[in-house]
């Protein structure tokens, strides 16, 4: 079994799910009392959020690289960035650390392609929705992506920062997310990517008839496949 290095704390709420899903995935395949071999570097998210507010991605990149090098020196054989947003810098980080990064968008695109879908909506932080690091992977797989409008993007980002990232799950926020999802369905979306690790804490498969792609679970499953491959 390969040792995985997790870079989390962005936020700690969803990093817990990564730890749980990966260990459960390994145990499902190996049985007994088997669990994953994991190393974790967990950030104080306030430091990352400060960089985001200043649009200082260079500082975030250096922090993530330093964390990854530390994990590598401790025996990690691959890196998992436990947040969709951090994949904005995944290629640069991968090159500087010298270990493979298991990319959340690549893994998600593969799952969507297997489902045979051609058009999906993407929800996430403003960095995920407004940059192309995620949608480029979808395009490469022949999948069309659509994103929320300006007002919806502002709402989603604000609730991720002020509510979901703190474990605050409000019914009125959930209702608004479902309203956005239903609009996408009317516009032809065959599925919706929950492209921020906190969104699945709020939106569940039973909440809507459209296929939901939980990137936390998809990313964790890809990590299990790597670890046991």
Automatic annotation (TrEMBL):
The keyword Isomerase applies. Keywords: Isomerase. One of its GO terms (molecular function) is amino-acid racemase activity. The keyword Isomerase applies. Pfam families: Asp_Glu_race (PF01177). Belongs to the aspartate/glutamate racemases family. This is Aspartate/glutamate racemase family protein. It comes from Mucilaginibacter conchicola.
